[in-house]
Amino acid sequence: MGVDLDKLAKTVDEAARSATAIPQLSESENFSLDEAYEIQAKSIQRRFDRGEVRVGMKMGFTSRAKMVQMGVDDMIWGRLTDGMLVEDGDVIDFAQYVHPRVEPEVAFLLKAPLEGPVTPIQAMAAVEAMAPALEIIDSRYKDFKFSVEDVVADNSSSSGFVVGNWCQPDQDIANRGMVMEFNGRPVQIGSSAAILGNPARSLVTASRMVTEHGERLEAGWIVMAGGATAAEALSPGVSVRNTVEGLGKVGFGVTG
Ligand code: OOG
Ligand code: MG
After folding, report:
1. Which of 10, 142, 180, 182 lies at a 20 to 30 A Cα distance from 232?
2. pLDDT band per the 50, 70, 90 thresholds, residue 2
3. Whether the model pTM is above 0.85
């Protein structure tokens, strides 16, 4: 008998909803990476059934720093809904997360669809705007530990995303300094070059990867390029800011 993908989708969805840590699915079930993406699709369908709307996608493990931190060597992706959007400057409630972390990113807003293999120039031609961003990741797995199949099933740890002011896409963001601060103190310093040498390549990869799963990147979607540095654990009372050279800054706070 095959694995019950619906049951596993319900397990990860309910863990996220109730902010409860669960054992890794792979400890008790055998499933492939393709099946992990099916579990992800089914868990996000449960969000759509509750009224959430798809607003984009996120790339994961597009930098060495992230791969090394989590011990995963493959790029992954996840689906973004409007329910995950945290407004720039908002304060999030720590109690609604299992063990949240934050990482500095860059976001793209698309004005045209993208699918299949594209060049970085073609990818950038579909971009309406770019912005400094922060991703709040929150693995539903105990101790934030997982296999690549586990994390993909868990929507690639996606939990929240924060986007700053949109900027014109007519600038080269291949090598921009990025500084993530906690209460004004730098906690991670990096460069957009850490994201596949240029965040535009993350968009190229996003187009290829979603097409492998029968989707395309849609006009109006936000694409999160992936963390440029390792993620940092959030704690109550912290105020987070990411400044990207030339793009500006974005931030949020945590209750407590
Ligand atoms: C998986 C998600 C990775 C990124 O930007 O690399 C990711 C995780 O680290 O829990 O979002
Ligand atoms: Mg990320």
Report:
1. 10
2. confident
3. yes
